Amino acid sequence: MPKERDRAEDRAELPSLAPEPSLDMPIIDMSVDDDRWVTHQGLIQDMLEKVCSLIGLRHGELSVVLTHDTRIASLNTQYREKNNPTNVLSFPCLSLNAPVEISTLPQTPFLLGDIILAFETITREAQEQGKLFSDHLAHLLVHGLLHLLGYDHVDDQQADVMESFESEILGRLGYDDPYSAKEV
Questions:
Q1: Structural domains for the chain
Q2: Is 130:108 a contact under the CB 8 Å cutoff?
Q3: For 151-173, what is each residue's pLDDT tens digit?
């Protein structure tokens, strides 16, 4: 009778079903509650990884919710008292009153926050602005991520800082300046 192999040895030879999270890249947890987003998930993952790498964000975890106008309008009403859909909402987990220096962030896992995107609004805006959906989406991902890092645009000075950084990031990734026509 052949000798039985150790079951632990068999398991060790099986490939992992889920990739190990990179130790030098934030964990991106994506949830989809609108099927129109399914074909864009890879683009979103890739874009966020490139942006994080470019700005030196190596740790943390962020959630990306891919939704529709009805859900984002409800969130916009609940948290911003604006009764309409919007393109992106960001909910930072860090308490920041100003943009954070990436080097001062924890070098261990921490929650960065949530970015929520609405398919219909982004599609409509891209068409109105004569942009590719993917280009407008890239801009909104950068915009949402910067909000998680303490950037804001509540006054002109803050807006200038945030928009300049967005334009720089997108330019380094090969995208046009989203503010060249000032339509956001």
A1: 22-95+102-172 (3.40.390.30)
A2: no
A3: 999 999 999 999 999 999 999 99
